[in-house]
Amino acid sequence: MTDAAFALSLRGVTKQFGSTVALDSAGFDVRAGTLHALLGENGAGKTTLMRLAFGMLRPDAGTIETYGTAREWRSTADAIAAGIGMVHQHFLLVPAMTVAENVSLGDRGLFRGFDPRVAADRVRRIGAQTGLVLDPAARVADLPVGAQQRLEIVKALARDAKILILDEPTAVLSPAESQELYSWLRSFVARGRTVVLITHKVREALAIADDVTVLRRGRVVLSGRSHELAEPAVINAMIGSAAPDEMQWPMADSTPGVPVISLQHVSMTDSRGVQRLRDVSMEVCAGEIVGIAGVEGSGQHELLRVLAGRLAPDGGSVRLPARIGFVPEDRLRDALIPTMTLVENLALKEAGGARGMMQWTSYEARALGTIREHDVHTSGVRSLASALSGGNQQKFVLGRELEGSPDALVVENPTRGLDIRAATRVLAELRSARTSGVAVAMYSSDLDEVLSIADRMIVCFDGRVTDTPVEADAVARALLGLS
Amino acid sequence: MTFLVRLARSQAGASVAATLLALAAVTLVVIAGGYDIGHAAAALWNGSVGSSYSFFTGTLLRATPLIIVGLAVAVAFQAGVLNIGAEGQLLAGAATTIAAGLSMADRPGWISVPVELAAGMAAGAAWAGIAAVLKRRFGVLEVISTLMLNFVALFGVSYLVRGPLQESTHLYPQTASLAASARLPVIIPGQRLHLGFVAAVMLAIAAWWFMRSTAGGFRIRVVGAGAAAAASAGRVNVDRVVFGAFLASGALAGLGGAVQVTGVTYALFEGLSPGYGYTAIAVALLARLNPLAVIVAGIFFGGLEAGGAGMQRDAGVPSGFVSVIEALVVLGVLAVDRARSVAGERGQPTAGAQAA
Lengths: 483, 356
Hints:
The structure holds two protein chains of two kinds. By secondary structure, chain A is α/β, with parallel strands linked by helices. Chain A contains 16 helices and 19 strands. Chain A folds into two domains: 238 residues, 3-Layer(aba) Sandwich (Rossmann fold), CATH 3.40.50.300; 221 residues, Rossmann fold (3-Layer(aba) Sandwich), CATH 3.40.50.300. Chain B is globular and about 60 Å long.
C-alpha cells in the first residue's frame, strides 16, 4: 500500500453543537492495514468523530490526515475521492430501486446515462472479487437486513474505498450474520485495507480488532492494542467507573407459577403468503423469563406479536391474559409518538379502549409516577418523547408497560442502541418484574444477553420453536436448525 | 429579522411570521407593479374592516364557510388523511341541501332548515365516503381520489343546474331560490351576516374540545401522529379511526356548502364557491390544524378576500394578489415547519431505519 504507517489520523478534533461539546480535542491514529475499533457509550462522540473523518461535518478545530497527507474535506465527495467509505447505522438505500441502481447512485455525470448492464456487471465483479455476492436485479426492499448491509459495503467498494468506516454494523444483524461480517472484515484488512468499526460491544471489539480506542464524553480516554487490553479495563474507561453491580447477574430463585400465556398449534402466514409460524405450542408462566432466540426471519418477530396479543394467528388457539405489556424493538415507530408529550404517550396505551372523556389529570399523575419510579431523565412529563435520549425513551416505554401490574410482558431487543448503563438498568427491571410474578418473554439478537437473563430458552428456526437448555452451544446449534 | 426568527420558534409564531413575510412580499410585488401602495392598502382596509358593513357582510360572511370547511380539513389532516377534496364535498352538500330545501318550500323553518343542513352533511360525508372506501378497500391514495372527485362534483353541479334542478323558466343555469322560511336567519339587521357564522364559531369550539378532551379525539390525533404506535402500543383500530375521520371531514365540508346556500346564495349555480374548499386548506394549515386557531385564520382569510375585492374596485389592483398572499402564507408555514424539523434533526437524529 503506501509508505505512511497511518491510514487515518485525527488530531485535536473539537466539535460543538450549540452549547453541547460533542468532541473535545479528540484524536487517534488508525494504522494502515488494521481493523480499529472505536468504542464508547451512546453520545460519547464516536459517530460525530467519524462523520468528521468522512466530511459530513467540519471540525471546529483539529486536523485530519489520510496516509500522511493533511486533508480538509469540503464535502463527503472529497472524502470518497480520497478513498474513505462509510456504512451508516441507518442504511442510506433507496428501497424501491434495485441493487445495481443503488450502487450506481451518486456516480458522476449528469448526462452520461445509466446502463443497467454495466451497473450489474460491476456488482457481480465486486461480488467475485470480495465475496460480497448480491443479485444486481433484486429490489432493495425485498432484501433481508444482512444483505442490505452487504450492499452498503459494496457501494463503498464501488467507489474504491481503502478505508471503510462502519457505524454499529451489527446492531441489526443476527449473531450468525455478525460473525460473517466480522470474518469478511478481517479478510478485507488482510488485503491491506483499513477498517474503523464504531461499536459499543466491548467483547466483540476486543475479539476482532487489532487496535481499540475508547471515547468518553468527547475525549479519547484509552487507546491501545486489543490483545494488551482487558475487558474490565475497557468497560471502566467507557463508563468512567467500575461496572454497575447489575453487570453480574445474581438470579434470585423463583419458582414458575401457572401458565399465563399459552399457544397451542399456532400457525401464521404473512400478507406476502410466507408461512411465518408452523405449529407452535408454548407457554409462558408467571414468575419466569422465557428467552427467545432466532436468526432474522425465523418467525420470532411474529411469535412475539402473537404472544403480546398484537397479531392474531391464522390457526391454532391462543390463551392470553387481560393485561400484557409489549416493548417492541423499534420504539420510535411502534411504542412512542415522538411528537407527543410523555403524558400523551402514557395515555397512548389506553387509546384503543378509552371511552368518553380523557382523564388528563390522572394520566399526568401516572406519567409522573412512571418517570420517578423508572428513573427517566427528562425536564418533565410535558416534554416531547423525541426530546428524551434513547435510553430514557426505553425506560419510559418499559415503565409504561409495567405500570398497572400486567400479567405478562413481551419484550423485543430491549437494549438495542442503549449504552451499558441504560441496558443494565433495563435488564434489571425485567428481572425484578419476573421476581414479582410477571410472565416475561424476551427476545434479543444478542445471545449473551438472553442467556444471561433467561430461566428457559426457546429457539425459533424456520417458524418452529424448540426448547433448549440455557447454554450457548445448545442454543447456537438450534439456531441453525441442528439439534 | 431576529425578531421573526425568534417568533418562528414558537407554535403560533410560525404562522404569524409566515403571514408577515407573505404580506411583505406582496407589498413589494404591488409596488413593483406600479400601483399606489398607500391607496391599495387603504382599499384593502376599507373592504375588510373599514366599516361595520365591510366587516360583517364582507369579512365575517366570507369567513363563515372558510371556518367550517377549514375545520373539515383540520380534522382530516389531524388523522393523517390528506383530504383535499373539501371543495367537492362542499358542492355535494350544497346541491343536496338545495334539493332538500326546494322540496320543503311549504314547511316551517324549524323543520326545513335542520333537515337541509343534515342533508348537506350526509351528502358531504357520502362524497368523502367514496374516497374513504377506495382507500380502505384498495389503498387508493386519497390525495388523488379526493382531488379528482372535486371535478366530478363540479360537473355534477353543472348538470343539475341545466337539467333536473334548473329553475322553471329554463333561462338561467341555476336552481330556483329557497323559500324565505328555508333560509338561515340574518343575525344583524341591515347586514347579510347570518346564523351560520355563530354556528361556525361554536362548531370550532366543539371541535377543539373534542380533539383535546375526548377519547375519540385522542384516537384521531395518535393515528395521525404515529399510526404504527397507535396500533401496537395503543391497540387502536387504525383503519376504523381513519375511515371515521374521513367521513366526519366530509360531513363538515358538506355542512359548509349547506350553510353557504341556506345563508348566502339561496340557490345552486356553478360559481357557488370561489374555491372555498381549497382556501380552507390554507386556513387549516395556517391554524396548524388547531380548531380554535381556525376561527382566527378563517376570519383573516375572509378579510383578505373581502379586502381584495375592495382593492380591485377602488385601487385597480387585481384581486388575484390576494390569492398570492394566501399561497405565500401556506408556503411560509411549510417552510418554517421544515426549517424547524431540519434544525431538530441536526440536534438529535431521528431513527430513519429503512430496514424492512
